[in-house]
C-alpha cells in the first residue's frame, strides 16, 4: 500500500499564571470547547523516542540496540501496556525494519526520504560551510518513522529547507500520519519531527539558531497546509530545545498547538506530577516534546512517563529516554455538530508516494 506524503468544565475555568510568550496557548487549552459533558471518551497513548539509529562509523552497536528496543516494545505489548503510537527519530539504519517486526505493530510509515524536497516561500538559511556539511547534499533521509496499532490512512511529509552544520547531511523534516482509531468519530492527525541540533551539528550558534527558527516556521506552515480541520492533532519529536529559551519561545504565540509539559504544569490541568510547576519551566529540561490541539474531538493529556530509562549497571539503549503521553479523547453532540467529513477525510488510502507497511 502506498500513501503520501477532562476534567469538568469548572476545573478548566481557573486562570493560568503567566508563563511567558506561550502562556496564551496554554490558557486557551485550559478552557472547555463546550460546557456540555462529553458523551463518550477514549484514550490514546503516544511514545516519542530518538533511538540513535546512526550508521557506522558514526556510532557502533546500534543495530543490536534497535532490535532490543523492538523486543522491549513487544514485552510491553504482552503486558497490555504498549503505546498505541510510536514516533521514532534517528531511525537511519535498516534494522528499524527488525524493530518494527519485533514490536508487534501492524502499521508503519516513514519519511521524508533522502531525495524528497519541499518548496518553501519563506526565508532560508543559506549553506556556507562545506567542511561542516552544508551544501554537500543529503546522505540520508529524515530518519522519521511512525508505528501504529490503528490504521494509517494518509501520510504527508516535509523536508526542511533550513539547516546548519552536520545536520544538513540528513534530510530532516516532519511527517503527518492520519490515523483511524476504532470507535473515535474523526481521524486523528499525528505529527513526528526532528529539528536541527546545536553542539552536535558542529556549527556556531549564529548558524544553528536561525536554522532552528526557520524549521519552526516551516513546521507551522506544514501543519497549516496539511492538518485536516476537525481532526485533533498530536505532535511529538526531538525538538532540540533543552536549556534553550531562545529556541523554545521562538514564535510561541503563533504555534497552533499546546506543549504537554506546559499544560500539565498548571494546577487546573489534572495531569501534573506534583513536582513540576510553571516557574521552573519543565519543558526546557528535555530535547523531546509532545503537544496537542483539539478538533471536533477534544484532547487532554492525563499522564506522562519515561520509558527506556537506563537500568543500573546496564548500558542505555539510546542517548534519549522514551517520552510517553496518554491522552483522553472526548466528544459530544455539541463538539461534533460542526464536523462535516469531506472526501479528504474519508478513511481510504490515496496513492500519493510514501510507503506504508502493514502486517496482514
Biggest pleated sheet: 8 strands, mixed
- The total count of strands amounts to 14
Q: Which spans have pLDDT < 50 for at least 5 consecutive residues?
A: 1-21, 342-354
Oligomer: single chain
Q: What share of residues are in beta strands?
A: 25-35%
Overall pLDDT: 82
How far apart lie the N and C ends?
Answer: 12 Å
State the strand order across the main sheet: 1-14-4-5-3-2-13-12
Structural class: alpha+beta
Morphology call: globular
Q: Helical content, roughly? A: 10-25%
Work out the helix count.
8
For the CA atoms, what is the radius of gyration? 20 Å
Description:
The protein has 360 residues and is of the alpha+beta class. 20% of the residues lie in helices and 26% in strands. The protein contains eight helices and 14 strands. It has helices spanning 9-12, 23-30, 62-78, 96-103, 205-226, 245-248, 260-264, 333-336, and strands at 2-3, 40-53, 85-91, 107-110, 145-148, 152-159, 173-179, 188-194, 233-238, 258-259, 288-293, 298-307, 322-331, 354-358. Strands 1-14-4-5-3-2-13-12 form an eight-stranded mixed beta sheet. Strand 7 and strand 8 (188-194) form a beta hairpin. The model is unreliable at 1-21 and 342-354 (pLDDT under 50).
